[in-house]
Amino acid sequence: MLIGWLLTVVLGVLWGAIGIVMSSARAWGIAIFTFYTVGCSFAALLGAAVCQVTGTGDALAADAKTIPFIACLAAIALFNCAGQALTMFNLHSGGRSVVYALPQVGFLAPMAYGALAWNEPFGGAKIVGLVLIIAAIIATSKTRKSSEQAAALTPRRLLIALGALASIGASQIFVILCGRVCRDKAASPLVASTLLLLVSAVIYGGYGLLRQAHVRVDARLAQFSAAWALLALVSFSVLFAVLPAMSPYKLQGVVFAAASAIGIVIFAVFSHLRQRERFSAQSICALAMILLGIFALRLG
């Protein structure tokens, strides 16, 4: 179990780094759609190159022809892409704090599904940990939005936020299902990650064709997309490695909650050090609740 928790911490660090790259790219005015299209393409090419160098290219080609495995990866990619797009659309239109916070608690879906479908333990410690993390995320979101003129929380925007939450949660459920349904495939984490990012690139590219969007790759976009691609490939590889490690202990659902919380802490520290954002008492309390929530989940 120690290896599983260590990998979960690494995953949280990687998710925090991805958030930092994404925030920096947005600060430079790079469009979300363009960023993800180029980033997923870079990541898929990088993964294929590594597979070729490490001698897993044949496994990559074989797994790409396995319909159930590709179907699971397609479901993960489709729901994840939809969740990210809905979230960004809502933020662009000026949603209030709860609209910003809701998609970040998508980890509730795999935890609830694991408890209902696979009888994963869901004791009092986990409930306390989840309550602390959710409350901290909402508090952090309110702190971020306090200086902005937030738009009214219309039913339409609330539905969009709930749709993003459902999509991200569904993608995390399919990540777990992929390992359970396709257990006989035993695909390596690198191969699974490469195929997942390839499918994501196809989805974003297909959406771009429907929109007839023009993607122009300049030096700035290439720089941020390459950084995101490397982090995304490694993070998905770690995710596909940590879930089997936590499966014997029925803690797969906890991985998403703990990693998300760690990523939020890292991003908050980055904002304080790099962007000179002051830590208010509310922010400090939120970070403390996140750390306590992780500890409670660990005890559970």
Short description:
With 300 residues, this protein is mainly α. It has helices at residues 2-27, 32-53, 57-63, 67-92, 97-101, 108-117, 124-145, 155-181, 189-211, 219-246, 252-274, 281-299.
Describe this structure in words.
This protein has 300 residues and is mainly α. It has one domain. Helix content is 79%, strand content 0%. The chain is built from twelve helices and no strands. The chain has helices at residues 2-27, 32-53, 57-63, 67-92, 97-101, 108-117, 124-145, 155-181, 189-211, 219-246, 252-274, 281-299. Helix 6 (108-117) packs across helix 8. It starts with a helix and ends with a helix.
Secondary structure blueprint with pairings:
Blueprint: H1 2-27, H2 32-53, H3 57-63, H4 67-92, H5 97-101, H6 108-117, H7 124-145, H8 155-181, H9 189-211, H10 219-246, H11 252-274, H12 281-299
Which structural category do the helix and sheet elements fall into?
Answer: mainly alpha
Ranges with pLDDT <50 over ≥5 residues? 143-152
Shape: globular
The tally of domains stands at 1
Secondary-structure element order, as H and E?
HHHHHHHHHHHH
Strand content: under 5%
Q: Mind telling me the C-alpha Rg?
A: 19 Å
Helix content class: over 70%
The biggest beta sheet reads:
none
Alpha plus pi helix count: 12
**How many individual β-strands?**
0
Distance between the termini: 13 Å
The residue-averaged pLDDT reads 78
